[in-house]
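Fresh eyes needed here. I'd like your take on this protein's tokenised backbone:
***
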Amino acid sequence: MNRLQTPLTKKLGIRYPLIQAPMAGGVTTPELVAAVSNSGALGSLGAGYMNAEALRRAIAAIRERTDAPFAVNLFIPEPVPVNAERIAQANALLHVYRQELGLSTQSPPIDNLPDFTEQLAVILEEQVPVLSFTFGVLKGEALEAVKQQGIVTIGTATHLLEAIILEESGIDVVVAQGLEAGGHRGTFLGTQEQGLVGTMALLPLLAEHIRIPFVAAGGIMDGRGLAAALAMGAAGAQLGTAFLACPESGAHPRYKELLCEGTEITTVLTRAFSGKLARSLKNRFTQEMAAREAELPLYPIQHCLTTGLRQAAATQERTEFMSLWAGQGCPLCTARPAAELVGAWIQQAAKIFGVGGN
């Protein structure tokens, strides 16, 4: 049996059991998504922050570059916990950084996230092959509409109960996000801390308790990680940080440099940028805000309050104020084209299993 042909490859209509993680904020460009899909894996567009018009343009740009399946990832809406006192405290803390970057010190708007209903309408109208989602469960009329279109659905879980809830909702695939993963935690049940389960601990639990295919994510950087995930019962692996330094990636050039210079101890879990726990490279902002995180408003309020700051920091190449999302495997980043990386990883995994990589 070819260990690289799994229920995931069959479900998605792809050649290899590998997904490029849908990193939002401009990193997953149409060029990156298409390059990964053309290589036989599944490219994913991180569209959580895109409005409907931008999302439609990005989907068109992907389709100009590939006929292969690809995914679009959206954020499940969460209640907005508006706490005026916390917002005032956060603005007071951010005042000095805004001044340093030459920005207005006035509080920015806290409603700059796109409308989920409008995003979903684009997914349906454009008949996107795969819809993945984070921060919750797609259910009710939304899930039914997607299923009627034949769109494959992928949800994110950070512990077993979330995976069970996702399976019971009727979706097709679960991504098991271990604590090693870069970027935002997908936790939606319990506290953020309860979602800090390592990938190696999480996979056997899902193998024992859920029936639909699940995909390993977190700390996987190459074919060795893919092979390990498959050996532990996963139907595939999702890699994000491993693609950040690719020429097709939309990550800032200085961001790419820091990733390749980093070590496994240069990442930190922080709420400073968005109010939601996320893994980032350490920088001045994460360190100075660490002692004050308990005072910050929750996601998405803090995200909105720091948006202008982060954008200005990127323009000015001030990496000390940028959200530099990175998994613990970041030292293994290489600045190679995405298709080359996928090919190398598949050959590496195939060699471990003693099968052909084609």
Observations:
- The chain has 13 helices and eleven strands.
- The radius of gyration is 19 Å.
- The first strand starts at residue 18 and ends at 20.
